[in-house]
Amino acid sequence: MKRSYINKVSKKTGERNQRWKVIVLERIETLVDMFGYIVCEYCGGYGNLTEDDFNQVWGHHIDWDRNNCVPENCMIAHNRCNTDIHDNNEHPQQFHGTKEG
Predict the structure, then answer these.
(1) Alpha-carbon gap, residue 10 to 31, rounded angstroms
(2) Region 79-95: what's the mean pLDDT?
């Protein structure tokens, strides 16, 4: 049986990706506690974790360094917003405010 090497990652990269996943999910939990739902920290819109959905969100490395997997370097953004951040060479920060009534 042949082994497929598509999408294989090194042990080090796999561990880094797992750390990042935990950080992202903790950040999402913080946003849900603040707002009652998942919010994109870039545009303020509703987000979810459903793949291939227009409102899908995930973690963006604020300093763009994929090796810097610490909570302070994580902001939650729609995939489309993450593309805008990179296309426009922007460096937004985490949202630390409260929901306005």
Answers:
(1) 31
(2) 86
